[in-house]
Design goal:
The structure holds 2 protein chains of 2 kinds. Chain A is mainly α. Helices cover 74% and strands 0% of the residues of chain A. Chain A has a single domain (51-322), classed as ABC transporter involved in vitamin B12 uptake, BtuC (Orthogonal Bundle), CATH 1.10.3470. Chain A has 16 helices and no strands. The longest helix of chain A has 30 residues, at 112-141. Chain B is an alpha/beta fold. Chain B is 34% helix and 25% strand. Chain B has helices spanning 44-51, 74-79, 97-102, 111-129, 144-157, 174-189, 201-207, 230-238, 297-305, 330-335, 345-349, 356-359, 378-391, 408-420, 438-453, 465-471, 493-500, 503-510; strands at residues 4-15, 18-29, 33-38, 59-64, 67-69, 82-85, 162-166, 193-197, 210-215, 218-224, 256-266, 272-282, 285-290, 312-317, 320-322, 338-341, 426-430, 457-461, 474-479, 482-487. The longest helix of chain B has 19 residues, at 111-129. Chain B starts with a strand and ends with a helix. Residues 506-511 of chain B have low confidence and may be disordered. The chains are: A mainly alpha, B alpha/beta. The interface between A and B is large, with 31 and 45 residues.
Chain lengths: 375, 511
């Protein structure tokens, strides 16, 4: 028996439902704030002005968003091919090797834009390499990619510690980090971009890799919706049996999709290493790989949605930092709770309000058509 | 007490913009078999779902035996005396017959007492309605026809006086269908009321007392079966005159285009699905493969199409041998001139979430005309789709619409247009008209005959025996993975039906 379903207007599907989910997430977060003993409206004000109220705030928000665009795109590309890449965290971490190696080798001799090209290639190569083994195991040995990519996050963590201590750390240093890069290994800040809007970037590390992220988003859109490879990936993701029918090489597509996914995750390393710290240090990914999963879910695996969702999460990071500074009752951990609620309502419980909204629009269209029939 | 088992008054139901049931009035007399026919999407299933409590009507009233009933879920329907036998059985496959019958009616947490009672009751029902079933047999080991009997017993065990059967003969052999009809007649004799939903007009004529016709959400007519004809019912269903018989001339078979020798296919568990099958298909002829679903036809088609590795055997396509036991390459088979309309368009032939145009190139997306480089030329993809939409009258004519939003018939036309317009030498077609409305069936049958007359070699698999008999020039019957026999299309239905049931094979084995 088939269930006839009503199609929702596009704006409801892509704007209203996400907004309702978001509103509920903030409502629940507000209740949590009340329990902590603070004023939720005041907290919201601090958060929003902290994220968007100044040039520096915006700079930080977009700096954080840059992380999430890369990892969100990485998760989305794999997702289109029906693969759940939980390993963006590790792939981004290992991608750092490529960035650091290029910077440490050439920062004395080359201008930043040449080093940038090499660092990008290195980041993509190492990120892809880290995705290759789980991809191969999935395609040719049937090991589930969710399990292997999670495992590879741990392996990456230990591998990177070894690399930092034994390869990148200069002799006689205490911290697990490389030396600071010369100007050749530093990406320019995007202060000019904000000054167009009359904003002052202040000390925010908002840098060139944001533009790289936007280009990557466009390239991903072309890949998914305008290339044969993207077409095959989507066929695989929607209907593996139809891909088989169409004669697509499923195993090859699994590997290629994961290589692209890993390469995108690897590119993320540009942002902290070459755009902010000018050195490679321990744990520079700081969970962005996992936030990327939420970003891809919320952005519905579409590059435009991912950019918007990444900015939202950038706001939560930056505004949250301001909030825990201004309201000592609200600790860093509380911010994580709020982020968790957004992920919960916008990601995991995405369909919670859908039936009610669908029913509402069904009634609306019915009374509309009855009115038309009456007239 | 009312003379009507069921009376529906002004039932109305919408799903968003879809007006599934429009002011339906229906009276079903007690102790009769009442047929409900209509094309796919006519609203039959919605109406029955309302009656069985899956959906709530937006407005309208339901009377059961003259009493106004509020059926808010299937539990309420059962206690009102309504039982339903679904198209896809709702049985726990690894449970016994008795356990399935009791499921949901166990009466207490400790089963011992309930089992004894149920066993006695089941025995009584079996005798009363002459339906023999071994209560301790495991469902998955029973033939489909017997499984269906368990479904019916399940409903009667729950004291159903009104039995709704949704497309009950789709999975049955002709002898099994006959047996079912005898059971239904028996039920009627015992005073039960039966509602039979089907799209097979012949069944309606054979067994029902009255028949109601639905079209586009409306109840367009109710007739006494004895006072109507197949032609009139078909016309009422479609809203225009329909050609029920396929006009076709003599076949002019040419050279052998597809040759299958000693093909054996085992599935991943090692079960033999196709067993040493050999046949030829010549240019300009249609070879039909008849058989009850699940007797190896699907695996045979998939092996020939390169989608499933064969265990042994050879296939020759256009005079060239094909590596049939390797991993298989459907793309390579296409290049060699084979086109494949798969049995299951929802999971294999189409990606329902794709736009129509994206499906119109599935499998041929590597063609240069869809883009010179790795990039797809979206304009030419849509233009190509639009050409096919016009040629095959696919509605609505919008290549950007999601495929899931097309009706079954139009979805099937998308697949057929894609495969036929490639001008293949060999065309293999599985279930060409499954879930397709009568109007589109006529169109699809005509196109298949046209392809034959253009000299294509066509291999046709269908579980609809009528379809095979009216289209095929030769009929091969498959049973349990083997070829049970070959017949001409003018062989009697009974003769082919026995082959489908494997009867002749058993006799041969006994000799």
């Amino acid at each position: 028996m088939s269930t006839p379903f009503a199609k929702l207007p596009v704006w409801v599907e892509y704007a209203l439902i996400p907004l309702v989910n978001l509103a509920v997430a903030f409502l629940v977060a507000g209740i949590v704030v009340v329990f902590v003993g603070e004023n939720p409206l005041e907290a919201a004000r601090i958060m929003i002005t902290g994220a968007f109220g100044s040039g520096e705030g915006i700079g930080f928000t977009l700096y954080y968003a840059t992380y999430f665009i890369f990892t969100g795109l990485a998760v989305a590309v794999a997702f289109h091919a029906g693969l759940f890449n939980i390993g963006a965290e590790g792939q981004a971490y290992v991608g750092g090797i490529g960035v650091a190696a290029a910077c440490l080798t050439f920062d004395h001799t080359m201008p930043w834009y040449l080093v940038f090209v090499l660092a990008s290639l290195g980041a993509m190569a190492f990120g892809a390499l880290w995705a290759l083994i789980p991809a191969w195991l999935q395609a040719y040995r049937g090991s589930h990619i969710v399990i292997t990519t999670i495992m590879f996050n741990y392996i990456a963590s230990n591998l990177m510690l070894y690399m930092l201590l034994n390869v990148f750390k200069p002799l006689g240093q205490m911290a697990a980090q490389s030396r600071t890069f010369e100007p050749g290994g530093q990406l320019p800040k995007l202060d000019w971009l904000l000054s167009i809007f009359g904003l002052d970037i202040g000390g925010a590390p908002f840098n060139f890799s944001f533009l790289v992220a936007l280009v990557a988003a466009f390239v991903v859109w072309v890949l998914i919706w305008r290339t044969r490879l993207g077409y095959e990936m989507r066929t695989m993701g929607f209907q593996p049996h139809a891909a088989r029918f169409a004669g697509m090489k499923s195993k090859r597509i699994v590997v290629i999709a994961m290589l692209i996914s890993g390469a995108l995750a690897g590119l993320m390393a540009l942002n902290p290493i070459m755009g902010d710290q000018y050195r490679i240090q321990q744990d520079f990914v700081t969970g962005a790989g996992f936030v990327g999963i939420a970003v891809a879910l919320m952005g519905r695996s579409h590059p435009v949605g991912i950019v918007l969702a990444a900015i939202l999460f950038g706001m939560l990071y930056q505004g949250g930092a301001e909030l825990s500074f201004d309201m000592p009752e609200i600790t860093r951990d509380m911010i994580v709770v709020i982020q968790g609620l957004v992920i919960l309502f916008a990601g995991a419980l995405e369909h919670m309000f859908r039936p009610a909204i669908t029913a509402f629009f069904a009634r609306a269209s019915k009374s509309r058509s009855e009115a038309a029939a009456g007239a | 007490m009312s003379d009507f088992a069921i009376e529906l008054k002004g039932i109305d139901k919408r799903f968003g913009a879809v007006h599934a049931n429009k002011n339906i009035n229906l009276k079903v007399a007690k102790g009769t078999i009442h047929g409900i026919i209509g094309e796919n999407g006519a609203g039959k299933s919605t109406l029955m779902s309302i009656l069985y409590g899956f959906y709530q009507a937006d407005s309208g009233e339901i009377f059961i035996s003259g009493q106004k009933a509020n059926i808010k879920d299937s539990k309420a329907a059962i206690s009102a005396g309504i039982g339903m036998v679904h198209q896809h059985f709702m049985l726990v496959e690894n449970f016994s017959v008795l356990e399935n019958i009791m499921l949901g009616a166990e009466e207490s947490a400790i089963l011992t007492k309930g089992i004894t009672k149920a066993r006695a009751e089941l025995k009584r029902l079996e005798e009363q309605y002459e339906m023999e079933v071994d209560p301790d047999a495991i469902i998955e080991e029973l033939p489909v026809g017997v499984q269906q009997r368990v479904e019916i017993l399940k409903a009667i065990y729950r004291k159903a006086d009104i039995l709704i059967l949704d497309e009950p003969t789709g999975v049955l052999t002709p002898p099994e269908a006959d047996h079912l009809f005898r059971i239904l007649a028996q039920l009627k004799e015992q005073g039960k009321t039966v509602i039979l939903i089907t799209h097979k007009l012949r069944e309606i004529m054979a067994i029902t007392d009255e028949v109601s016709v639905m079209r586009r959400g409306e109840m367009v007519a109710t007739r006494k079966t004895s006072e109507t004809s197949v032609e009139e019912l078909a016309e009422l269903m479609v809203g225009r005159r329909v050609l029920l018989h396929v006009e076709k001339g003599e076949a002019k078979p040419g050279e052998v285009k597809l040759s299958v020798r000693n093909l054996t296919v085992r599935d991943s568990r090692g079960v033999t699905m196709v067993d040493n099958v050999s046949f030829d298909v010549r240019a300009g002829e249609i070879v039909g493969i008849a058989g009850v679903a699940g007797n190896g036809q699907s695996e045979l088609l998939e092996a020939i199409a390169g989608m499933r590795p064969a265990t042994s055997g050879t296939v020759t396509l256009n005079g060239q041998p094909v590596d049939i036991t390797g991993p298989g390459d459907p793309a390579d088979m296409r290049r060699r001139g084979l086109a494949h309309v798969p049995e299951d368009r929802h999971h294999t032939g189409l990606v329902l979430k794709f736009e129509e145009a994206e499906n119109a190139m599935l499998g041929y997306h590597g063609d240069r005309k869809f883009g010179q480089s790795f990039l797809l030329d979206v304009e030419s993809v849509r233009k190509d789709a639009m050409d096919k939409i016009e040629q095959y009258d696919i509605r609505p004519p919008n290549p950007r619409l999601k495929t899931a939003n097309f009706s079954g018939g139009n979805q099937q036309k998308i697949v057929l247009a894609r495969e036929m317009e490639r001008n293949p030498d060999v065309l293999i077609i599985g279930q060409p008209t499954r879930g397709v409305d009568v109007g589109a069936i006529e169109f699809i049958h005509k196109r298949i005959i046209e392809m034959r007359d253009q000299g294509k070699a066509i291999l046709l698999v269908s579980v609809e025996l009528d379809e095979i008999r009216s289209l095929a020039d030769r009929i091969i019957v498959m049973f349990a993975g083997r070829i049970a026999g070959e017949r001409n299309p003018d062989a009697s239905e009974g003769e082919i039906g026995l082959l489908m049931a494997g009867v002749e094979q058993k006799l041969e084995a006994a000799e």
